Amino acid sequence: MNEQPVLAETGTVLAAEQAPPSPGPPPMSPADLKLARIVAGQVPDPEVPVLTIADLGVLRDVDDHDGHLRVTITPTYSGCPAVEAIRDDLISRLSAAGFPHVEVVTTLSPAWTTEWMSEEGRRKLAEYGIAPPLRRAGGTVSLVLTVRCPQCGSARTRELSRFGSTACKSLRVCDDCREPFDHFKDH
Amino acid sequence: AALAERFERTVAAEERIEPRDWMPEAYRKTLIRQIAQHAHSEIIGMQPEGNWITRAPSLRRKAILLAKVQDEAGHGLYLYSAAETLGVDRAELLDLLHAGRQKYSSIFNYPTPTWADVGAIGWLVDGAAIVNQVPITRCSYGPYARAMVRICKEESFHQRQGFEILHHLSSGTPEQHAMAQDAVDRWWWPSLMMFGPPDDASPNSARSMAWKIKRFSNDELRQRFVDMAVPQAEALGLTLPDPELRWDAESGHYRFGAIDWTEFHEVLRGNGPCNALRVEHRVRAHEEGAWVREAADAYAAKHAARAGA
Amino acid sequence: AALAERFERTVAAEERIEPRDWMPEAYRKTLIRQIAQHAHSEIIGMQPEGNWITRAPSLRRKAILLAKVQDEAGHGLYLYSAAETLGVDRAELLDLLHAGRQKYSSIFNYPTPTWADVGAIGWLVDGAAIVNQVPITRCSYGPYARAMVRICKEESFHQRQGFEILHHLSSGTPEQHAMAQDAVDRWWWPSLMMFGPPDDASPNSARSMAWKIKRFSNDELRQRFVDMAVPQAEALGLTLPDPELRWDAESGHYRFGAIDWTEFHEVLRGNGPCNALRVEHRVRAHEEGAWVREAADAYAAKHAARAGA
Amino acid sequence: TAATVQYLLRLGDDALVLAQRLGAQLTRAPQLEEDVALANIALDLLGQARPLLARAGELEGRGRDEDALAFLREERDFLNCQLVEQPDVDFAGTIARQLLFSCYQLPLLQALTTSADEVLAGVAGKGVKEVAYHRDHAVQWTLRLGDGTEESSRRMQAALDRLWPFAAELFESDDLVRSLAVRGVAVDPASVRPRWDADVDAVLAEAGLARPSSVRVATGGRRGLHTECFGYLLAEMQHLARSHPGATW
Amino acid sequence: TAATVQYLLRLGDDALVLAQRLGAQLTRAPQLEEDVALANIALDLLGQARPLLARAGELEGRGRDEDALAFLREERDFLNCQLVEQPDVDFAGTIARQLLFSCYQLPLLQALTTSADEVLAGVAGKGVKEVAYHRDHAVQWTLRLGDGTEESSRRMQAALDRLWPFAAELFESDDLVRSLAVRGVAVDPASVRPRWDADVDAVLAEAGLARPSSVRVATGGRRGLHTECFGYLLAEMQHLARSHPGATW
């Protein structure tokens, strides 16, 4: 357990803001773009830092836009305050990785859905103690699936509050081990 | 006795006590008191910052602040649920809070007269809370420890946002800079008091340490906080209001001036600037909401009855 | 019959009927209704302007506005006392107002969204009120006539202040000028409606004229107001929102466009923008003040008893 | 585009002002779950308002961003409907306002997902999911309060009666919106009225509440004419931003 | 003179802020006579505040007039005591605040009639007569409420208990005021405390009310530190003036 989680990112944010103005943009190679995609994908979600924005599916695209790196993200919901922090982190990390000109574009459509969350992301969430969103069956009938307790695995859980500390999570409790836990809601 | 032994063994082995495990009554009570106080602090702590939601100076800051205060309510919910695993219920705990029989962190008895206070709370108060809480992620009681893992992560995000608010103000207009400095001047000392009285005056600490509810002494945590805050204040371009503050190369720590514990005890006794205001506000919301909770109960009862019939 | 004759003679001779004189029941009732409505208008009329006391843009304007609203309360007191000379009491009349069974001037059912509305009310609404009320200074009922002498003097002062507010705005910044024009656009037509329905649709007028409670017809008064307002609007540099408005040299009057009486009747029926708001506000103040009035009565009773004992 | 700007301001101001009202309720809700829920709804609405206002400022081309539009416009320039600015008298009032508004907003946003304006379509697409929840939240509470205790039913009915006159304005059509609808940018709000009537009637019936019979129709918001409480809301919201001209935050 | 400016602001802000609170009560009083009375008191206080602020601006020499000081200062620059900014919870609260303040203000102004500052002496001379009436009004109502019904007595006591912690600040002395007192400009507020104690105690005794036992002492106003309600008061008061920079009215 890291006991110094405090402001781990601040220094780099400041560095990015102080980055000198740019000379003319050189074109980007496919290798550059690949690297940029990896670096961008590793930016953690500020509130659930075990997940990266790639895990979440918030990172939509990284492309060359007239010699600038353009990163497209889709917020999980309209008012999500993490967007600003993600934007700052993208700029600072990409800048550190040698991409001084980064434009972060926020797009609302198509709207983000939990379907975009990777398997890896689901696994990490459960390990972290948050029940991952349910997979909808591809069929037409939407089954009422049970949310399993991330602590003991029991299916005997119930919702305490439709919202937890953040909009994307609800608060549940397990009737077997009594554990209260967050559930990342299907969206 | 076998149960007691097993409890001691589990704690000693750094393993977790879970809700259905046997535990000594005093352990249970200590935990209930501490988790409840923590939950109360989250919901009372919504007020000083909530004070600025309608007046935040940009839409982006308004959204961030709304989300933060929502987080605090969510943490409160989460912590009350954790306390409930110990066999109390939220309604009881709230009654104790409203009657003044359970405490919340004294820091929330200071007012937020300016927007910069939102930044100072995020940076200093959340910062101190994190230093206090990170060790609890290794607390011997499972549900509390696990709750703290996620809460600490979210609070780190809050602290970062508070720092950003102050950073922006500090490098803004002269009026904004002065606003930031003024807020830090007012919040610095109260933040140091958040770690509780000095070790030699802290009666309950020893047992909590033995039970691995508490991991570090008040003074250790306070020092850790100061060591963290000083360089951050420099990065902000703001001065901490302590002329005695200086780097001590020998110990590798920052030394700081004496804390005015009289003020701390006055606030703790209920005579702080906002004690009455905070509790009244809570009680009013609770009382004005009584008819709503009754309606929800009546509705649930009716529909349970109908479903049963 | 002798009494009735004497009453008729007094009225015909332009002399005054006084509280202790005999008067026909219908005369008494008409007067009570009219004076009460007038008193109600004063106290409801405090609300649209009172809306700006806490937000007046300069201390001088704040003081003037405070004094004006205080004057209105004073007029209300004065008029309720005048009504009481006819054998009703204020509490009864207030109950009728609160129950929606007595009216107040419909003009106060329009909102005051901007500061310029305070000016427009002073200039147009008080202006129209004065045109309406000056003839009442010669009303056959003595206490009412004498009250109106004083009230009209004070209202002239108010009208002048309203004019000054608009004049200052009109010659201020473009935003201020627009604010003044917008207010005049909204208040002009409602002001014309203050004189009541056209003569051919005004049922009670004839008798009131005969009794010398009313002295001029609605349309006569309205014309008098328009003739007064048009040159003042020019002096203000503001446009009255009526494309048909023009000087008619032949008659020596300004001709104006048709009034939308549907709106008038909707507002009168209680469906204006602020009817509900105004009455609710009044009723709330009255109800929330009930314990105070009871305390004052209880205190007075105790001390009267003690004094008597 | 001047018409589109106006239309974006109408939608954006609705969301902004309602978010402002709901945000003020935080720490005042009847239970913690509701503090969370109302904050969340406020956040969703604020999240809708921001791109709408930003887009309006961009199309307007006078250099005003979302904050200039939110904090430096005067009362007469706000184009939100009067419903959203009505004060929170009690929790029943908060819920009644949410019910009337979300039952209107949901079908409107559904129709706007295909708007020719990309930003509008994006906000609508995202908003549909969120507002479906807002409506559900309002419906659940309307049922609980309507069919709860005598007091809750009385309060809920009073709240509906009080707010009902403000509902008609939601569906007001005018040349501006009709012309934009023809171009596929806007949706004529009159077109969502049948759905609203059906939805609201169904909830009221199930909750045992009467559909208010008020004939009064409050209107003016779309022309910038607001009820007297609105000036106070703006004073509170804008004071700090206006106190520091030119500063950023 | 910097000290005199500060002192004038303390007195002027007290009067201004209390006038603002009382002005907001107009149309909300329990009876028409009280609408008139409270408006009248507010007007007197505003009449005191204006020359005091104007004089402060003049001595300061930075070109600020009474309006610049009232409408363009920030919260942290207002030097009124916290008592006058406390909100009007009910009529008992309004009266309790008036009682505590007018019993302080009357002897203070009496002593200030001989101030070496001409404006201050002038305001005090005129104010003494007005405040004598304010005090009388508060005393009469304290008696009626204290010795009226059970409810009125309970409310009046609660109001006193609530406001009592704010009384001590009225009498706070500091270097600034002591140095000005030596020069005959100011009056050390500590000097009027005995008179205040005697006056207030006498009224409470006659009204059958208990002198609150609260040990809490609220303070900070003279250093610009205010209670959280004050920012909202200022937002409302200043919004229009701040919305039109440079305009006159």
UniProtKB/TrEMBL annotation, chain A:
- What's the domain of life for this entry? Bacteria
Q: Where is the PaaD zinc beta ribbon domain?
A: 145-185
Positions of the MIP18 family-like domain: 42-96
- Listed Pro residues bias regions: 20-29
Task: Tell me the Pfam families matching this sequence.
Answer: FeS_assembly_P (PF01883), Zn_ribbon_PaaD (PF23451)
The record's SUPFAM superfamilies line, in alphabetical order, gives: Fe-S cluster assembly (FSCA) domain-like
Under the heading InterPro entries, the entry gives:
Fe-S_Maturation_MIP18 (IPR052339), FSCA_dom_sf (IPR034904), MIP18-like (IPR002744), PaaD-like (IPR011883), Zn_ribbon_PaaD (IPR056572)
Q: From the UniProt entry, list the residue stretches annotated as the region Disordered.
A: 1-30
This chain's protein is named Ring-1,2-phenylacetyl-CoA epoxidase subunit PaaD
Look up and give the organism this protein is from.
Answer: Kineococcus xinjiangensis
Q: What is the lineage of its organism?
A: Bacteria, Bacillati, Actinomycetota, Actinomycetes, Kineosporiales
